[in-house]
Amino acid sequence: MITDNWNYIYKISGGNPRTTNMLYTPMSNPEETVMCMSWDKDDPYQSANKKLNAELIDFFFEREVTYLQKFQLYDWAPKLLDLDLKNKKIFVEWNPTTLNRILFKDKQNLNDICPSWKIQIFQILKDITDNGCYKMALYPHCFYIKEDKIKTFDFYSCLLRSERYVDRKHINGMIGPDSGKRFDDATVGNDIDFDIFFKNTLLTHLGTIWPDNPFPDFYKKLYD
Fold first, then answer.
1. In total, how many domains does the chain have?
2. Domain, as residue range, for 17
3. 3 state SS for 56-89
4. Which terminus of the chain, N or C, has less C-beta within 10 A?
């Protein structure tokens, strides 16, 4: 697909549009029906991330492809439309109605827009954990609504629970200035223990981001 006239996708944070992540460039077609994840370290979208390099891109691009394909059978995974391995571009179905937009741009109540949002997100988490995996990216901008169905993406943040220890040097380049403590709290020696990271994410971190935060209850249902 030719993306020359496509538009960057941003999230709203602190009342202002900001980049959604520190790895890939998200853009949508003019009709806003397809999203392209372009894994290009030189794209202007990522100009603020001085630590982004080819090794980091390769590491997380492989994860995005692996877990997006793994979860294609689930209706909460965006349909994979095209995969350009040479240029590291992933194309999936899209709808601009992200939960971030509903909450922070349109300033609407999720219970009014999608009364079953908690049930749907819990089911997503349960399906992922039942597959022996974690998914760390659980922010409102990582979910969108398409025909009353909540879908999630940013599968680069997934990993197998059996591979919970990851050498921190592999991912230092995507740790933002506001995220350091989260990773420090889960660092054991040279490794990040993502079992600790995932637990802390659900029990404490997301409470500052989600109104009517359901994630501590999700954690208890999954593990207690």
1. 1
2. 7-223
3. HHHHHHHHHHHHHHHCCCCCCCCCEEEEECCCCE
4. C
pTM confidence score:
0.94
In this prediction, residues 41-70 reach a mean pLDDT of: 93
CATH number, domain with residue 139: 1.10.510
In a domain, 96, yes or no: yes
Q: What confidence tens digit (pLDDT) does each residue in 10-32 have?
A: 999 999 999 999 999 999 999 99
In a domain, 2, yes or no: no
Q: Is the dihedral of CA 78, 83, 42, 191 positive or negative?
A: positive
Q: What is the pLDDT of residues 99-138, one digit of tens each?
A: 999 999 999 999 999 999 999 999 999 999 999 999 999 9
Residue 149 belongs to some domain of the structure: yes
**Is position 126 within any domain?**
yes
